[in-house]
């Protein structure tokens, strides 16, 4: 099993980004930050409130075409992330070559997403059937079992997301299909779960803190210039810009971690 060093990955990522910033950041802004900002601006306020605090008994009606627009935005972001991985894993490649490679491998990434979603839905169906069986015997037993199975589902999804964190790098760096890419990504993270978990938690916390600070500061400036609407737009743009920077550092670090893990 290969050794993973987060510190070494950080040092290599910082040096690489310093050299290739003019290639990485425009791609991140155009294909990661901008689609996210557009989808955010298209999301109605009541839907944003529901996303922040989901309630099963109060799901707002989605505007026509919103689900398709959100799905398209996600696909574009995945396309951009693959291009960033291509730039990080193949030094010397041009942006045009990275985008073409990303486009050619995007169907594989979409296929892995579909397969994972199908597996999750199948697991949820099994949970529902088990809950129904227990409900026939006792409502209290069904309630307890539903809570336990729901907790198990959350843990499984969380565990799988960490184990598959190198999936994009595998997809862009190899010629494997859907199943082979999933298997290789899973194998590369074997024995490294807690180290990757700690790394991702730190990145998430830093991203949240910096993004929130940028949103508040630029939101205040926007409110002085254009009122509440200006505050919302300025805050959203600032948060999107911070997200692009964080994504570049995160993806380049994951690329370096992938190289370490695949060295063996």
Write the layout of secondary structure elements.
Elements lengths: L5 H37 L2 H8 L13 H24 L5 H43 L1 H25 L3 H7 L4 H11 L4 H69 L3
Helix pairs in contact: 1-3, 1-8, 3-4, 3-6, 3-8, 4-5, 4-6, 4-7, 6-7
Tell me about this structure.
Residues 5-260 form the DUF7847 domain. Keywords: Membrane, Transmembrane, Transmembrane helix. InterPro entries: DUF7847 (IPR057169). The protein has 264 residues and is an all-alpha fold. It has one domain (6-32, 60-261). It contains eight helices and no strands. The longest helix has 69 residues, at 193-261. It is globular and about 65 Å long. The N and C termini lie close together (7 Å).
Please name the defining characteristics of this protein.
85% helix, globular, mainly alpha, 8 helices
Low-confidence stretches: none
Which percent range fits the helix content?
A: over 70%
* Radius of gyration over C-alpha positions, nearest whole angstrom: 21 Å
**What class, by secondary structure content?**
mainly alpha
What average pLDDT do the residues reach? Answer: 85
How many DSSP helices? 8
Q: How far from one another are the termini?
A: 7 Å
How many strands, what sense, and barrel or not for the largest sheet? Answer: none
- Give a count of the beta strands, DSSP E runs of length 2 or more: 0
Domain DUF7847: 5-260
Transmembrane segments: 21-39, 66-87, 108-135, 147-172, 193-221, 233-255
Protein name: DUF7847 domain-containing protein
Keywords: Membrane, Transmembrane, Transmembrane helix
């Amino acid at each position: 099993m290969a050794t993973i060093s987060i510190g070494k990955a950080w040092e290599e990522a910082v040096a690489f980004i310093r050299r290739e910033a003019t290639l990485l950041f425009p791609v991140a802004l155009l294909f990661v930050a901008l689609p996210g900002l557009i989808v955010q601006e298209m999301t109605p306020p009541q839907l944003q409130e529901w996303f922040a605090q989901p309630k099963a008994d109060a799901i707002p009606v989605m505007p026509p075409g919103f689900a398709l627009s959100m799905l398209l935005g996600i696909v574009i972001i995945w396309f951009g992330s693959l291009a960033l991985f291509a730039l990080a894993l193949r030094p010397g490649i041009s942006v045009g070559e990275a985008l073409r490679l990303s486009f050619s491998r995007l169907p594989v990434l979409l296929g892995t997403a579909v397969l994972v979603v199908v597996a999750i839905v199948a697991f949820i169906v099994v949970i529902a059937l088990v809950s129904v069986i227990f409900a026939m015997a006792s409502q209290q037993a069904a309630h307890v079992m539903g809570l336990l199975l729901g907790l198990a589902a959350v843990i499984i999804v969380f565990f799988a997301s960490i184990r598959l964190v190198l999936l994009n790098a595998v997809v862009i760096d190899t010629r494997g299909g859907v199943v082979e890419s999933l298997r290789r990504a899973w194998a590369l993270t074997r024995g490294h779960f807690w180290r990757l978990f700690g790394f991702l938690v730190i990145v998430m916390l830093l991203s949240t803190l910096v993004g929130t600070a940028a949103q508040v500061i630029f939101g205040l400036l926007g409110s002085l210039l254009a009122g509440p609407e200006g505050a919302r737009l300025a805050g959203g743009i600032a948060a999107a810009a911070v997200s692009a920077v964080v994504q570049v550092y995160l993806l380049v670090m994951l690329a370096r971690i992938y190289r370490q893990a695949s060295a063996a």
